[in-house]
Design goal:
single chain; alpha+beta; 4 domains; five-stranded antiparallel sheet; three-stranded mixed sheet; 10 helices
Length: about 375
Amino acid sequence: MIEFKAECGHTIRAKDEHAGGVVRCSYCGYKASVPDTRSDDLDFLLKDLEQPTDGEEGARRGKRRWSRLFGRRGRKRVQFDPFAIIVRMCYAAGLLIIVIFVGRKYVIPLFQEGGLVSRISRPSEEDAAGSIEPETTGPEDIDRRGLLTTAIQTGLYLESTPPGATVYLVEASQAPARGRVSGVAGSLQLRSTGRFLDVPDGTYVIDMVLPWNHPSLNDPYLPNYENYRAFRRAIEDASGDERIRLLEDYFIPDEAWPVFIDQTADQIYIVRQYRNVQVRKGRLSCVRALFLPRIRPAGGKSFSVASLVAHYIPAKRAYAFNEDHVRSELDYYDVPEPDRQFAIQALARIGVIPYVTPDGRTRLFKIGIQDGMFAAKVIRESTE
């Protein structure tokens, strides 16, 4: 008697002569193969799987037995594609590069000094400057800001209008009595791009220099410079004191003295020289040069502040101060009401503006670069 467990789960008993054959389960009628006890168990199983049983149903049962016995299913063969692997590697490398760039550019700086923590804990100096309303009226705001920059410090501040003048600086004790200081040994050469210079304490002579064909002076598309070519021809033909007179007649005055023409073998230069510029420890000194044309109103020797503001002075506000206080000071110097607003705009943009007051004096109105205080001084002008 052969006893075995069929696939249906029931225990079946078969006679020995039925070994290797097929019997039906007495419980469910399912056909079951009787083990052949005369062969090795594994050989029996393999043989039973390889032998076909009643048509397609027997073949399906053989496949199911094979899967159960060996726990293995057929696998689909995939063709090897090296190009697809290369493409995926390129995508992965590109993604990695993007992650590294974003991390180093934006994420890491947030956690460094001055990053996210400091921004949360306190506003930046740019934000603080931008939040200041310059049109304040309280007396405590009269000396309030000055130059709107995060780089306020002690030393020497250099700027020109228009920007781009070349600066030469030398100690006053080494400067020649006449002429440029560029040839003095040890003189510094800089650009007047609105910068602070840390120089030793002392008294200096500073030249602000523009070539006579500088683009900002020689632009034919600016209508108020339409006489500049005639001015150049006059300069070219003149010499000595006549050149100085032409310069003073064409350009508005500032604190420069003297103003002169320097000619080399290759070029002609317009020079505005500033003498006795004092630099002291813990203080801020400045030189603000004006290469601006004298636009005369009809029938007058003065010049139009409105034209300067409209065509030649940068539109960006660079200084903050108490406008009511400045307006009161301009009224004290008898500046007519129509000109006051233009003068205030010029002071807010470049910090200085000359003006011929009704008493015939040419005064330079100034805003303190560090404290925003208003000041006025009489400047020399030989043509008046």
